[in-house]
Amino acid sequence: MRVKFGGKGGRAGVLLTARSGRSVGQAMTEFALALPVFLLLLLGVIEFAWAIYGFNTIQSAANEGVRRAMVLSRPASNFATNGNSTNDYSLSSFSCDRFGTVMDTMACSLLTLPKNRITVHLDMPNSASYASGANVPSQTATITVTVRYQYAPLVGYVFNLEGKTMTGYATSQNQ
Q1: Most buried of 40, 141, 155, 175 (most Cβ within 10 A)?
Q2: Is-contact 120 93, C-beta < 8 A?
Q3: Which domain does 27 fall in, by range?
Q4: What is the per-residue pLDDT across 38-93, written as a single tens digit (0 to 9) for each?
Q5: Distance between CA 53 and CA 1 in Å, rounded?
Q6: CA dihedral angle for residue 168, residue 58, residue 154, residue 156, rounded to 10 degrees
Q7: Is 129 within a domain?
């Protein structure tokens, strides 16, 4: 259907053409084909960002744990406290309410990730390596913190990342 609007004296006017019903259906079909691809790309970007955030968080927590352990290295008896001694720990038994131990400090760094999916291994110096009455180890003392996180997907199980383990690792030497 064509409609012509003319002006005075035979001047050219505006010509309007009505769309047929077929082009509306074509647009909906193209949208239906493009939408899943667009959503897959969008969800992939979101999932990748969440994975990078999780890895950066556990790596930062490992670094913070080593820093806290270095601060706690004097006196040597601090390494005998639960949360400071060499052991495997579950993060769910520690809270951010107190800052007395390495594990409490790490619990504050890992607030945004699910605690039941995080395990921490602390490898602290043996307090026997400290000279009696001294707050400095008689030999080089190495502190190692390893954080393992069982990845929890943010947008579902589209990319089959459920249960993949991420590891954050930090070490330091006290001389």
Answers
A1: 141
A2: no
A3: 19-174
A4: 998 998 888 889 889 999 999 999 998 888 887 776 666 666 677 777 888 888 77
A5: 57
A6: 30
A7: yes
